[in-house]
Amino acid sequence: RRLQKGIAQKVYEVESDPKVRPRLFRELHREIKDRFGVASYKDVKRKELQSALRYIENWIPRKVS
Fold first, then answer.
1. What separation in angstroms does the CA of 9 have from each of 12, 15, 20, 58?
2. Are 21 and 12 in contact (CB under 8 A)?
3. In the chain, which ranges are continuous DSSP H helix?
4. What is the Cα–Cα distance from 62 to 3, expressed in whole angstroms?
């Protein structure tokens, strides 16, 4: 739940256009899955939670070309 909140908070903070947000959610979820080696962001281990939250805090979306 905290991870989900952190992700939403970051995406809304970064992007005000509702049309762009779904792409950012997908991008951030994918990066979390890759970084922590899990099938879903929900599978991030409790001991890795703080590290995941810090990652989200410092996450910068890739620029759209």
1. 5, 10, 15, 12
2. yes
3. 2-14, 21-36, 49-57
4. 20
Tokens of 12: 């809304």
Q: Record the tokens describing residue 64, joined without a space.
A: 């759209």
* Res. 38 pLDDT band, cuts 50 70 90: very high
- Taking the whole predicted model, whether its pTM rises above 0.90 is answered as no
Q: How far is CA 12 from the centre of its chain?
A: 11
Position 1, amino acid = R
Domain map (residue ranges) of the chain? 2-57
Q: Are 38 and 44 in contact (CB under 8 A)?
A: yes
